[in-house]
Design brief:
It is found in: Cell membrane; Membrane. This protein is α+β, with helices and mostly antiparallel strands and about 1050 residues long. The chain contains 34 helices and 31 strands.
Amino acid sequence: MTDKKPLLSGNVKEAADRADAAEQLIFESADLENGLSEARVAELIEEFGYNELEDDELNPFLKFLSYFWGPMPIMIWIAIIIEVIKASITGDGVEDCIVLSILQVVNGTVGYVEELNAGNAIAALKEKLAPECTVLRTVGGRVTRGKLKSRELVPGDVVELKLGDVVPADCMLTGNPEDKEDQLQVDQSALTGESLPKTMYAHDKLKMSSLIKQGEMKAVVVATGKNTFYGKAAGLMKIDDAQGRFQKILFRITLGLLFLSLILCAIIFTVLVVNGASTVPKLPGNSTVLRALSVVIVLLVASIPIAMQVVCTSTMAVGARRLASRKVIVARLSAIEELAGMTVLCSDKTGTLTKNELTLKPPTLFGDMDEEELTFFAALSANRKSADLDAIDKVIIEAVPTRSPTDPADRWTKEKLDSFDVIKFTPFNPVIKRTEAAMNAPNGAVLRVTKGAPQVILRMCIAAGTADATLGETVDAKIQEYADKGFRTLGVGVSYSSLDEPPAWQFQGLLSLFDPPRDDTAETIKAAIDGGVEVKMVTGDQRAIAVETCRQLEMGTEIFDTEILNSTFMSDAEKSDRIFAANGFAEVMPEHKFNIVQALRERGIVTGMTGDGVNDAPALKRADIGIAVEGATDAAKAAADIVLTEPGLSVIIDAIQRSRKIFQRMRNYAIYRIACTLQLLLFFFFAVITITPSSGAFYGDAKGPQGQAWPCVAVGSNSTHTGPVADMELPPPDGKGPHISQWWCAHEAAFVLPVISLVVITILNDGTIITIAHDKVIPANTPQRWDLWEVVVVATVLGLVACLGSMLLLVFALQSNYHQYHINDDTVSFFGNLLGQDNSGEANHYVTWGQAQTVMYLKVSISDFLTVFAARTRSFFWERRPGYALAVAFVFATGASTILSIFWPQSFNDISATNAYPSGGMRMLMAPLNTNSYAVITVWVYCLIWFIGQDILKVVTYYVIENYIRTEDNERIHAVANRAQLTTMLATDDKARPAGLRAQHSAGIAGYTSANDARVQKLEDEIRMLKKVLLERGVLGGDAGAAAAGAATGGH
């Protein structure tokens, strides 16, 4: 992903931070208690519009026209112009011009429709990702406070901003400017380039799209949409969309095919012009160059993958819609291809591996409160007025009992919570790891309550002098006891000192929470490992909790805490090895997630990372696939490639399987398209340079009246001839004209198909192959990757086999008249009987030039589409049925080609009975195959036989590649899967051990590692201190002193 440059610098930043007069007026006139009314909101939307930036979308009509202008459309336009010129000179080519125009319209329309569908799919997905904010409004006469789409905000709206929110519009913070405790930490790096969050106080202005890193305050919207700073600066901003691997692969394939096509078509053009000029009689109005150019241009159009981008984009759009139905929202289409190649998934524990359904266990008391009172005071430290309560706060508040009529007045119940007037609330953030609330008690006393990480609360109490080391050891032991059972613990502290005094925190007790694994998590992890994806747990909980959870889920218990990630004595390579070997990480901070992802990616591992908080954004961006889990903040969603709208790991694993299906469809299409291009190009290339139709060998010994050989021979019949004869021996079809060979040239100077037939092949095959987006595929058992070398090799094998089949059939067709046999006084041609015509019940054992062209048209069409069924599987084609849409497309495309070959319209022919004599040179002719009932069946059987051989060679090719050529690559791909499966086996074995042995084993490893690390760290610290003392005393000097100074300050 590319880094965005800051939009501001210097004095511009300061000016942007200040509100102008109009914005100040909006801020001062805002109703902070009731918000805006519905009628006022409607008026403001009419005045200012919705809170969204204007899109630079083209007019739909202009966008549609853009699909008729570009490299490929221009080539088709050139072909149309050539046909128009040719028609105006020779009178021929009108039909070709019409069909080329149809191709242009179909190609542009299909491209526009599919791109529109893909765009609509992406827009629908983005709509689901649209940010929301908490807004105060008066609806129906009642003041409401709830979630609203950010685009519906108007100036004057009162919004609530908290940790993880993306600022929805330009806002000004409410409150007392003199109270510096009311503050937000705001990340404006994308706008200003400032690397550190900025502290914002009441009446400060926040810019749209900034991130709230810490704190919680109310704000008034003062500008929306294009009137915000972000909207005004958007025109100056250049956002580069980094190409995914998929776009790069498509570009390389297209560029390679274009390069090959240009070279071969240039050679074909040269041969056609030279042969046409030297071997065919010159006729008035005939242009050999125009004929050759029209053929080559259309051949180039048919060869280059026009529809590749459309087909692949359509395939991914269809897949994205299906993923959305499975609660997986794709932020960018190319993420689907990258998800298919994911090898390691670093997953959150809470809510992803576990149910996020916390159960509060009876508290452990360390102060003067009872269990009910401790729970009540813990609930006081929650932001009870928040629209979306944290899961921990919710379970604690729900644990406070509701008053019953028989309860005494002093019981700690929910109704009593409202009697405490909250003065200030400090929400949780990953830095301080706790919440705090200051309030006035019903008796007027000032009270402060905090809850959070037990070690943090305990340190605060020790610092206040209300706890000692003995209590600390007791609390630590209890925390470890709970952690060994998989329980999360929270410490609760209370201070009764006034707000102008330092708090005298008293440690009151521990709350233990249990979040059980989801019912399907263990099975889902096993499915992921079977699919070659290793799941590593990444959690902020204690190591013991992580170990216990991993043990229950059979994930392996090699869990490391942050000592390894923070270690200064391990090399980067050693850290990388430890990270790769780990089954999970505990007690991590958001920055550790980034380091974990970085280390894995540097090993060449395609890594996915889940996250939900604002501080997870860097790791989500750095990962190959950033996944924002259900309930993630807007900041995390903005940084992620994929957003989940349903909790649980099974959603991710299902997305991986589906993405692999989508990847296979795109890969299969790439193989098919390369193979078809090679078949078409190489067939015409070899046909043009190796086949010389003017040779009498192809039509037998056709002689003139004096026995001379003729370069142009006709095949027909009259009262005296039933085989190949010289041109001048046949009268003109209309009984008029000269008796010379110029009037009817029965074949071309070189073998090519008519322009119209190439266009029909392109329309039928490229138009229907788009159904491959719905093909039935089975997801691979290993992560997928673009092995372009393998794709090209397999496609080349398929293309060469099809090309060889076409060349042999062409030779058989053209030599069928030469190889004849005498049976019962009849002259018989085997191929002539199968492919040739039968006029008036009299068998004529030869194949005409027009029939040969039609036979080859049918063969190329059928083998083109049959190649799809060979390309779509790594094994034999019959082992997996095609999708119904693809099967219907096959029947339609091949059926249409077969019907056309049987009833080829006479109007499409360049030579007819009434205009035969102007013919000559590069004139092309196709004849229907309805004169021989065996011709079409013969071509179909021939194609099927070669298809079976093509499929067998494909299987052999894959076998050779996997077992003899790419063995190292395949071993590396399977390494992670094998390692993950081994981990599962060890975890299963560990789960079967008695609990006591497990605890001893785990404690032994942890103790050994921790003791070693501590000793090494202590030794390093002592060395630094010694060098520092020696330096200060002047014992070290010069270079040694400089080196010691660097060591003493931790430099390198």
